Amino acid sequence: MGGSETAPLDIETIRKDCQRALWEPPVSSRDETRLLVERIEGHARLLGPVLAACAPRIQGEMKDTALVVLRNVDEVRDERAPAWDLSARLHDLGVVTRSLLNLLELAGEIEQGAAR
Q: What pLDDT score was predicted for residue 69?
């Protein structure tokens, strides 16, 4: 496989981390928040290129949505994005990462627990 190998997608972990970031009570400590931010940023880093690769094959409104999500991923991950408010950063990353996951599932690019 050479240099084109990619890390396997752990869909269940991605889903749980997004759930934690978006719908569970706020993370209790700044260190825990920072760790979750780093994990979800890593998920976005893995999922973004997968969606970017399949976006040309997506049709209709879902393609438009995919392009908006990809733009939002770039904005959230930009080094100029405000990093001082970790709670807001966690929320923003959770939203775009969950959006990436949902679009990839709808496009048939990933199944629960596996990447194609």
A: 95
